[in-house]
Amino acid sequence: MRILGIETSCDETGIAIYDGENGLMGHQLFSQIDLHKQYGGVVPELASRDHVRRILPLIQSCLDEAGTKLIDLSGIAYTEGPGLMGALLVGTTVGRSLAYALSIPAVGVHHMEAHLLAPLMEDEVAEFPFLALLVSGGHTQLVKVMSMGEYELLGESVDDAAGEAFDKTAKMLGLPYPGGPAISELAEKGNSERFRFPRPMTDRAGLDFSFSGLKTFALNTFQKEVKNEQTKADIARAFVDAVIDTFLIKCRRAMEDTGLNQLVVAGGVSANKQLREGLHKLMDEYGGKVYFPRPAFCTDNGAMIAYCGYLRLVRGDTNSLDFQPKPRWSMLDL
Ligand code: KG4
Ligand code: ZN
């Protein structure tokens, strides 16, 4: 089975081809970061228009990269949600129409399930059941994964997602969009002793998160201090330390609650160096193992959609012609 995957949920046009026998045959990505940078965040209408411009040439270059043709495809997968409605409409319309024209099945993929399963494309993979920490721009969730499609939500953010908190705090410090990588890099130059930010919701039971207070804490600290590069780096450091420490505390708690010691981490924030180092140390302590996607597949990409779509199509899941993209969609409804 050879599947074309299409990702257009936000600000990346991602196209890939996954084959049941050959694995990943090609993947192409066009990031709109430069387009949105000047506005300090994603402008939905510009995102949709750019997906329209990029999608067909990108599909063609992905087919060329994979050395295959449209007629060799056995199915098409596209991100059905969650995401920006206009952006989702581009990928779902192109994908569903192409499948109709080729008379092959089409399947809509849940963007967060695709993130969650992305680490399974690597050589070393977790075995079911395992824990998953999903950390992207729109979601922060701790999930117990019994098998594909069988998910139990253990905890989630009650306000901002982790990536969102990274982006907003970075913006406040005058760093460019997307803030996650920028603030992490600046944090490397910061002194961890100067400021200490709270570890939100760790003093009470449960596995939920809250990150919006950290952004305010960073802002209040910044307003009180002399505004120079070192202060910014020290605030970045205090912020990153607080976020990572919070994740470590909750992951430890989730392992103790469930008795599971395999952890899969996915979504844009899983590219974070400090998070990776911290979780490796934690899992060593528990005799467990943590699995990440390769850096290119932490943030949005077409490969995870092609792979997840492949798994869904193998199970016989398909979209009829009258489906609707879902800007809001809980993974628990799968
Ligand atoms: O998964 P993703 O590409 O898109 C969504 O599905 O939301 O995640 C994007 C988020 C952004 O908020 C970005 O700032 C964050 O992931 N991010 C990072 C890093 N790389 C990307 N956050 C912290 N450290 C990073 N290295
Ligand atoms: Zn994503």
Concise overview:
By secondary structure, the protein is α/β, with parallel strands linked by helices.
Order of helices and strands: EEEHHEHEHEEEHHHHEHEH
Low-confidence stretches: none
CATH fold node name of the largest domain = Nucleotidyltransferase, domain 5
Counting DSSP H or I runs of 4 or more residues, the number of helices is 10
Sheet-strand content, in percent, reads: 15-25%
Secondary structural class: alpha/beta
Number of strands: 10
List the domain count as a whole number: 2
Any idea what the shape is? globular
Q: Average pLDDT across residues? A: 97
Would you kindly provide a written description of the structure presented here, covering whatever features stand out?
The structure is a single chain. Helix 3 links the parallel strand 4 (75-81) and strand 5. It is built from 10 helices and 10 strands. The strands form 2 sheets. It has a 5-stranded mixed beta sheet with strand order 3-2-1-4-5, with helices on both faces. Strands 8-7-6-9-10 form a 5-stranded mixed beta sheet, sandwiched between helices. The protein has helices spanning 33-37, 44-66, 85-102, 111-117, 162-172, 179-187, 212-224, 229-258, 273-285, 303-314, and strands at residues 2-7, 12-19, 23-31, 75-81, 106-110, 130-135, 140-147, 150-156, 262-266, 289-291. The protein has 2 domains: 2-116 and 297-333, ATPase, nucleotide binding domain (Nucleotidyltransferase, domain 5, 2-Layer Sandwich), CATH 3.30.420; 125-292, 2-Layer Sandwich (Nucleotidyltransferase, domain 5), CATH 3.30.420. Helix 4 (111-117) crosses helix 10 (303-314), helix 5 (162-172) runs antiparallel to helix 8 (229-258) and helix 7 (212-224) packs antiparallel against helix 8. The model has no long low-confidence stretch (mean pLDDT 97). With 334 residues, it is of the alpha/beta class. The two termini are 23 Å apart. The structure holds 5'-O-[(R)-(carboxyoxy)(hydroxy)phosphoryl]adenosine and zinc ion (ZN). Residues 10, 136-138, 163, 166-167, 178-181, 184, 267-269, 271-272, 299-300 line the site of 5'-O-[(R)-(carboxyoxy)(hydroxy)phosphoryl]adenosine.
